[in-house]
Amino acid sequence: MTKKNDTTEATGATEEREARPVGLGVVGWLRWGWRTLTSMRTALILLFLFALGSVPGSIYPQRSVDPGRVAQYFQNSPTEAKWLDRFWMFDVFTSPWFAAIYLLLFLSLAGCVFPRAVAHFKELRRKPPAAPRNLHRLPQNAAFDGDLTVEEAAARLRRDRFRVITGPDWVAAEKGYLRETGNLLFHVSLLALLFAVGAGALFGYRGNVLVVEGEGFSNTVAAYDRFMPGQQVSAESLQPFSFTVKDFQATYIASGEKRGQPLDYSATLSVQDTPTSRPRDVELKVNEPLDVNGTLTYLLGHGYAPTFKVVDGKGNTAFEGPVPCLAGDQMTYTSECVIKVPDAQPDQLGFLIRFLPTTVPNGKAWVSIFPGAANPTAQIFPFSGDLGLKSGQPQSVYQLDTKSLKPLGKMSADPTPLNVGDTKELADGAGSIQFTGVKEWISLQTAYDPGRLPALIAAALAVIGLVLSLTVQRRRVWVRVKGRQVTVGGLTRTEGGGAGFAEEFAETLTKLRGAAPAEPSGHSQPEDRSEDASASDREPVSPSTRSSEE
């Protein structure tokens, strides 16, 4: 009895194991993952995510484009900026999550396009299918009496750029292969566009620099404020050009409702393409970059750089030169900047500067009413003490930590501004500061992108492919000749019925008749895009002439 029960239990266990579904296994899961990744639905989802992921790059300032605005964002909203920076919102196009979308989209398009290209190549070599027996059942059909022969019908259809084959008493013609060709061209161009962007990121570089009027720049890694090279870029691969900013002019609307809005920015540069070449003057404008053998230098922004002279408590000149300021108000260009004087004696000095381009009194306060430097002044907030520059902690040149510093004299919230040439004596014998003049600075981005031209060509080809896929129809026409009776039928393989094919069919019918057009009897039956023919309706056709759809 026990042996029988054991046998029954063993048999039941075996049957239970056989009834369990078999797992996919490693290879099965990999195959499923590849098919899912290369499906059209996945490609569309990734393309949507690619476009959606680019949106933050246009909303938030990017370090690769304008690091000054990023610094201003951190100054205005430090907590928000800190959280945004954790998600790479200021470096969207170099972030890991954007790179993941980019690579997955590249793989998805590659896996989707290449099999379709092979299938389309085979389709291009396949002959049109033979004529169905009953052409009157096709969506477009007509019949007429005439002396048309099979050879004449084939010749007239070939003149209309149809691909033609003939039988004993019939002609089969087809055209519109450019529809699928355009579809493939569009997807291949997208693939090429992604590849060109990736190649540009690998072999190209970008750099940002701020240059004050009268100062120069050489295209070396050390000269950049921020340099972002591709993985295959070295210091020796940079184009050895240099330039000096001779002048900068900003033009604004002087009156009316749009008063203060900028009209034009223009910088005059003295450029040397190589260290031994002759200098040439170049006018640099927004969207009109300097081009030196494919390396482009763009004008991004500008601001004021008032010049000061600081004399310390021992009578020595501790600082002299321009100080770039960041504009807090773009309408009036009221700007703020910082001077740090670590070499001052007996104590280090620091200054907060508020620069007003066009100064007017507003009660007990002073404000700027115009972005142009019509009446430039500077309000000075002096401090002394240890600036902390020897602590090893990095500091921003646009910020001054006043917690450990001592104000010099009675600190006013809105001190009397200095005009150009005025000097302010510092309290406690700490020295003096003189407002000596006004210069302007420009922010520039230098970029070298070898994938720029291929990306432009790929984008143009994508547009051409999209136009072809949307305008060209795949259509077929058959002609059957029996004595003087000629029957013509046609259909389109375009989804949605193929708008405009009825007119084209009427024109084709006119050319076949060689006379005035006859009225086609189109749409006498519901459209059948399976070519309206079962196997019993057709004459025997050799396998080489059959279409994959039959």
TrEMBL record:
It is a multi-pass membrane protein. Its main location: membrane. It comes from Microtetraspora fusca. The chain crosses the membrane at residues 43-60, 97-118, 184-205, 453-472. Residues 511-550 are annotated as: Disordered. The keyword Lipid metabolism does not apply. Residues 40-505 form the ResB-like domain. It is found in: Membrane. InterPro entries: Cyt_c_bgen_Ccs1/CcsB/ResB, ResB-like_domain. It holds the Pfam family ResB. Keywords: Cytochrome c-type biogenesis, Membrane, Transmembrane, Transmembrane helix. The lineage of its organism: Bacteria, Bacillati, Actinomycetota, Actinomycetes, Streptosporangiales. Residues 525-540 have a biased composition (Basic and acidic residues). It comes from the Bacteria. This is Cytochrome c biogenesis protein ResB.
